[in-house]
Amino acid sequence: MRKAIGWAGVLQLDSVNVLTRSHYLPVFARVGNYPRATLDKLAWGKDRELFEYFWGHKAALIPLTAYPLMRWRMRAAERQVWDEELSPDVTAPWSVVAGMRRLTAERPGYVDEVLRMITEKGPLTAGEASPDGVRRKRTDPDPDPGTGRMWNWQDAKIAIEYLFCTGQVTIAGRRHFERIYDLTERVLPAEVLAAPEPTAAEGRRELVRIAARGLGIATAKELCGNSGQAHFPLPTATAREVIGELIDAGELIPVRVEGVTRQSYRWHEAKDRPIDAQALLSPFDPLIWNRDRTHLLFDFFYRISIYTPAPQRIHGYYVLPFLLGDQLVARVDLKADRQTSTLVVPTLTAEPDAPDFIEPLADELHLMADWLSLDHVHVRADGRLAAQLTDRIRVTSTPARTVTADAKR
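Given the sequence above, the corresponding structure tokens read:
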């Protein structure tokens, strides 16, 4: 598990739980049947080895060894609130910046009150950290319309996210996936907080190294671009400078990839070897979270459908690409029906000219059902492939597992 997380670099967090939380899935894809409670312990346990931060791709779990590399970023986030000359794409989220500027004018001292509450009563959720308990109603106008309705947080949430961005508090745990905040020194190991702090330049280089090791070969945009699809995004000029330094050091090797017009770079330790993979990939897996890269390298046009209205969905709601060998061969819509203890396959779509994948997919669904402690597999999809999958799952079922299907032959 540690090796898989280290190579991935970050595990993106997402609240959708139709199958299981997304951060569990990249480890399952690489390790197989592991106890999710172990990952919880690594992330939020007493002897944790991971920490949460908003700048690891997006909200993500990151190995604690990277915490010192983020300190320059935390100070930049603090400056961003007060210095309009700093670009918001390298520091705090705009919802925090806009909200903090408003709070400073309208409610001076409010952030200090929130921090005092956490100090005295923490760990707390954002709702519990409100000093006066006042909450804005849904019908009230947005105080910061520029941030958009989804990110127009309550004042206590803005204050606590600012404290989180600047490293004064961190995520102590989660309750029904809601963040619980506490003082950083009460959460993270003392040796991590006491570790020597690299300079901003050293920190940026090491973060790009983490991305390069995880990707193997990538363009500058894929390594550290500011499009929101990189491990640790940097402004274009900064990214160019860091990549140049790593090229000079012999750690990144400029290469050309067939079909890719942009300059690519190979991590110097990346090995050219056959790939014998068999994995269902989370929509937020580091291998495919960059949709443009996925399209170029795998000829696989993929968009997540959870935000698409049901009538417009083509391949299903929570669709996991199936990696077989070095190809993405199918799209498998999956759902964990916990009431009936069933792994449901609502939709199954093969890629054009895909090799036969039914047997390995059946094996993978068995493995996933075991991993999620589900007793049944139900292929609800229509068509010939679904019928073949049903037959294969039935043949390989154990006495403890049942298979049902309404696939149309």
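Residues 200-215 form the longest helix (16 residues). Try to locate this feature in the token string yourself.
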